[in-house]
Amino acid sequence: MTIRGITLDAGALTAIERKKQRGMQLLQLSQQRLAVLSVPIPVVAEWWKGRTDVREHILDAVNVEPLTLAVAKAAGEAQANIRGASAIDAIVMAFAASRGDVVFTSDPKDLESLRTYFPTVRVLTC
Q: Where are the domains of the chain?
């Protein structure tokens, strides 16, 4: 059995929060230990709009992880080289690339533009 690494962005966390089908499927994969859901800490800052029981439950279900200096540098370089890229999107892609993860997002267009800098990262829609 292969355990898949999945990096979530703020849109994916929102999809889980709103109980969208794809978001709930991601949680099921995690509960069945078929996937590890990870979130870089800056994504929490983008997503968090205040404490709710649902948000706390989501954070308990995912691995929230700090950035390494190498990931932060890679994100900065990508942002400098990809016109219109946001820091958070670049962090998500650099984080996923460093781990060999797939990224789930509700807005693939922004992350797809960063694939020119992180070509090994697959971006999927939730």
A: 4-125
Per the CB < 8 A criterion, the answer to whether 8 and 123 are in contact is no
Strands, E assignment, the chain: 4-8, 35-40, 63-65, 102-105, 123-125
C-alpha–C-alpha distance, residues 3 and 23, integer Å = 18
Q: What is the CA radius of gyration of the chain?
A: 14
Q: What angle do CA 7, 102, 66 make, to 5 degrees?
A: 30
pLDDT tens-digit readout, 46-89: 999 999 999 999 999 999 999 999 999 999 999 999 999 999 99
DSSP state of 65: E
Amino acid identity, position 39: V
pLDDT (tens digit per residue) in 88-104? 999 999 999 999 999 99
Q: To which H or E segment does residue 96 belong? A: helix 87-99
Q: Which CATH number fits domain 4-125: 3.40.50.300, 2.40.37.10, 2.40.128.710, 3.40.50.1010?
A: 3.40.50.1010
User: What is the model's pTM?
Assistant: 0.95
